[in-house]
Prior knowledge:
The structure is a homotetramer of 251-residue chains.
Chain A: E1 4-8, E2 18-21, H1 29-40, E3 44-51, E4 57-61, E5 64-67, E6 70-75, E7 83-88, H2 95-111, E8 116-124, E9 134-138, H3 141-149, E10 163-164, H4 165-176, E11 181-188, H5 195-209, H6 216-235
Helix pairs in contact in A: 1-5, 2-4, 5-6
Amino acid sequence: MDEYEIETLEAVELESPVLIEGLPGVGHVGKLAVEHLLEELDSTPVRRVYSQHFPPQVTVDDDGIELASAEFHAISPEDGQDMLVLSGDHQAQDNVGHYGLVDAFLDVGDEFDVERIFALGGVPTGELIEEYDVIGASTTDGLTDELEDVGVEFRENEPAGGIVGVSGLLLGLGQRRDLPAACLMGETSGYLVDPKSAQAVLEVLQGVLGFEVDYGSLEDRADEMEDVVRKIQEMEGNASAPTDEDLRYIG
Amino acid sequence: MDEYEIETLEAVELESPVLIEGLPGVGHVGKLAVEHLLEELDSTPVRRVYSQHFPPQVTVDDDGIELASAEFHAISPEDGQDMLVLSGDHQAQDNVGHYGLVDAFLDVGDEFDVERIFALGGVPTGELIEEYDVIGASTTDGLTDELEDVGVEFRENEPAGGIVGVSGLLLGLGQRRDLPAACLMGETSGYLVDPKSAQAVLEVLQGVLGFEVDYGSLEDRADEMEDVVRKIQEMEGNASAPTDEDLRYIG
Amino acid sequence: MDEYEIETLEAVELESPVLIEGLPGVGHVGKLAVEHLLEELDSTPVRRVYSQHFPPQVTVDDDGIELASAEFHAISPEDGQDMLVLSGDHQAQDNVGHYGLVDAFLDVGDEFDVERIFALGGVPTGELIEEYDVIGASTTDGLTDELEDVGVEFRENEPAGGIVGVSGLLLGLGQRRDLPAACLMGETSGYLVDPKSAQAVLEVLQGVLGFEVDYGSLEDRADEMEDVVRKIQEMEGNASAPTDEDLRYIG
Amino acid sequence: MDEYEIETLEAVELESPVLIEGLPGVGHVGKLAVEHLLEELDSTPVRRVYSQHFPPQVTVDDDGIELASAEFHAISPEDGQDMLVLSGDHQAQDNVGHYGLVDAFLDVGDEFDVERIFALGGVPTGELIEEYDVIGASTTDGLTDELEDVGVEFRENEPAGGIVGVSGLLLGLGQRRDLPAACLMGETSGYLVDPKSAQAVLEVLQGVLGFEVDYGSLEDRADEMEDVVRKIQEMEGNASAPTDEDLRYIG
């Protein structure tokens, strides 16, 4: 296998699509958001990307064996812009691999003539969230304006640590290819898989792109997570917000 | 030395052989199983694979010095299918090396026209095993059916963490070459080198391939391991199953 | 993106410039020094270097998104020698990347015909500093003499651990290109971002190169740091020098 | 700089030389032995090897700056066989680098037509040594016999963990080039820089190669180390052998 391999699954035409990425990260916000899109809208898997920089691993499920990979799905929703959705279970395992992999992702985007990129993720706040704000970062003023119009917050020098991994490089390497890109980061405690944060991100994206999805299943999953938190709080005999000690990463 | 080097040891013809892999892993189940095959059946070393991704290490034994490598052995048993058996003391030390090494292994398999692959290993249960089930994962329905017939269990989404290392990639990269592959994983505590689990895996393999081997020496080794466990239990004044604390990896 | 990419920002002519490097390191001494130069003197960004060996990261600030990089700035001060100043937020993340990156930096230096190199940094003493000495290391006797004349101390076998990272390799790889190079290391506790040490280094450099800068803002920043230290000492009820326990890396 | 670079320092003719390696390792036995040879016998530096797999580091000493490297020295002693002596302060920092670096070392050996290799090192026993045995491992029966004649011990399956790093690969990769190679490992506690173990190794080598050296300075250094041990023992109020707790790596 080459260092990076792009496998064609199906030939699909998309009209000026937007690339939407949601790989694993803080609170699994991006991954949950993208998986929800794929559940709610009709999609066709179009490309799969393998890499020697993914873990040397296969997953086992009902469909059999799957080698570590990331997958692109084409969505042409009834309402709104066409989408090329990137999902998967892995990030690259080393620096050089991160750069090479995101270049491979952008090559796929070029094949489909994507006109801009939205990288979805979470931003950790360290405390449980009451109101789920979505923080934005973008490579063009146009995108910034458009996102502010639908309620995304652009805060000076936030996130303070920058944006790392695939989402960060989609912006950085996208910018080098003159491809407008924005990162939409749902606020999340950072301790829990966070379906509410994923919903907040999707609602913003919906405002920009115009698709229609139902949030029932995400809300159900959020309720389940709240039950988990409540139980932890009871076990600790502590009705207030859990401390860092209480909350380990639960998902 | 190149990144991967395949050395020819002897020219041997095999008829539609099956590739059987048993490199070090959980409970050394795969390694024990494969070493037992090599002890019990007549075998000829045919290829040795060196790699810059193996540890920078030589082993010292009666035969002298041996550079870190993996070795293929040809077996044409009286009963049953020909086998190309892969054994060794090392896995690759990095992700990229894992991918490259398994590609080299599959290249050797191609040379011998192997028609399918069985990767042998263990799956950790975290507790001492009473009944040694063998869990399966496979890339084709045909292989799954055949293995279920000889008692291998295929459980939904197991192993949960997927299959990592050489065994996992033999399935994943084998599938990409249209070479049917299955992983046979003997249940094992994960704390001890486990000859009983290795025997359970071999008995299943025997059911599929038809070779005949005696298990006396594996049973002796299992008895030795049980003595070790018993002594640990006594030292701890604890006649019941040892806890995680008692059991470190012993081999 | 290639493993290393040099982007031209602006075409600027410099006359026999000196290359001055100040990337992150002990006490952020080199980085503070170089940033102060860029604040106080007119500068033009001329080259930016990207690398797959930098972290896979973008920073977010008022100017938008910036992919991890290092930047060269041209300075032609009214008094003194022209300077090509290298600044940035990152070192390479692996050995091979360090070597390749410094070679890229030296290639940029060659483009501008730099005639020598000053790498700026800090040397940790493990205790709070009263008098800010500057330690030197150099690849030519001529440079050593010149630096001793302006008060730089050359101490036998110091720093004992050698010089690591970009500063070290600028000397080592510069020497292999017959480009005279020196490292100026301000003594610093190693626990704190140290503007006073940065000022000591700049004053020495000023003695060699002849530029004129005001140190007001660095002194303000040093006062702020001293307030921080004083507060820590009070919190510990300890008016004397803070211990290792008191002082973690603060900046 | 290339991944590996061999720099010619001086053109020297050697007659059927033996390659002797002593890079840092357990107890610094190999390094001490080789440095003692270079101090006691007339030697000429002939090649220097740089690598991107060495640490990104320069050392600072009276002679100025030195980029991380390994160095070959030619020795034509009055008595005994010519020697090509490999010394240095570093091992490679990653697996792939180890393999590539040793290949570069063997290329230099080929240039000088070395006819065999002695890799010098230490083998840790975990306790203070009374009698300094030297353990051997070799790639040919001829070498084994020759070394046994001068008192080297060849013990079944020792060292149990194999031989790692440059010494191990000189044997493993040397064997692949049909170049006879042996490793001479002085027993050492593993806690201390061990000049006595280095002397034991050199005395064995002297028996094979026939050179003449004085051991006064190594004995002085051994006395110093013993003073250090004694002081530690006194500080612990413990006149018997120091425990693992007492002895950290001291050198």
